[in-house]
Amino acid sequence: MAVAVRRITEFYDWIEDVADDRVEDWLLMATPWPAMAFIITYLLFVWLGPKFMKNREPYNLKSTLLVYNFMLVILSIYMFKEFLITSLLGNYSYRCQTVDYSTSPLAMRMTRVCWWFFFSKVIELLDTVFFILRKKDNQVTFLHVYHHSSMVVNWWLGVKYVAGGQAFFIGMLNSFVHVVMYSYYALSAIGPHMQKYLWWKRYMTQLQLVQFFGFLFHTGYNMTVECGFPTGFNIAVFLYCFSMVVLFSNFYIKSYKQKGKKYKE
């Protein structure tokens, strides 16, 4: 038992030693426990929320959803712009880019937008909260919960150890997709009369799938070359994106292909 405790302590000391000192004092970054507290609270709400709402009327959150979704559109536009401009100014390679751990203005600018991207994933946990409070439990699927909770963990690790480098490509492309996605949610929240303008929902799901295929091929390529970006992170990203391709493909088939076939029949 004592040996196991010592090894765990040594491992914890090691991961602290290799962490990025630049983000040590930033919000939620000193230790993993605050981020884990968010995840645990989130999962508890996913479990207990529907029980709480079982005999209650769904909340009318129209105004809240409008403000929330439009704010996320603005934040996503900001992050996309920062990832794009900083990578261009820094002459980043779109094939494979190592992390700049310096405190130069461009390196810190990239680190800051990576932190904002992580923090946006914490904010987006509210997606699920709003679904449950509105009794839209059919939206709270395994894919939804897995994606929202895992992204907080993934990007806490990303900011803590590899804030920048080729990780910028994931943040940039995902921010663009979220501009489209939260624009759709904001328009949908206006009211039922907007549905006739939201015929492009299917294409939004296709865009999400293309995004994950893009990450898969991008990371897969980076695993075959040497550019200084940690191999362990590349492997983790590749496996995660593979899981998302499988889950999103399954969602797409069930939502559009199978429903369309039943409709024709």
Give descriptors for this structure.
265 residues, mainly alpha, 9 helices, 0% strand, globular
Task: Give the helix/strand layout.
Blueprint: H1 2-17, H2 33-53, H3 62-89, H4 105-123, H5 126-133, H6 142-161, H7 167-190, H8 201-222, H9 231-264
Helix pairs in contact: 2-5, 2-6, 3-4, 3-7, 4-6, 7-8, 8-9
How would you explain this protein's 3D organization?
- The protein is mainly α and 265 residues long.
- The protein is built from 9 helices and no strands.
- The protein has helices at residues 2-17, 33-53, 62-89, 105-123, 126-133, 142-161, 167-190, 201-222, 231-264.
- The longest helix has 34 residues, at 231-264.
Total count of domains: 1
Q: For the report, how would you describe the main beta sheet?
A: none
Structural class: mainly alpha
Number of helices: 9
N- and C-termini, Cα separation = 63 Å
Helix amount, in percent?
over 70%
Mean pLDDT: 92
Number of DSSP E strands: 0
Shape: globular
The gyration radius over C-alpha positions equals 20 Å
Strand proportion, as a percent range, falls in under 5%
Low-confidence stretches: none
- Give, in order, the helices and strands: HHHHHHHHH
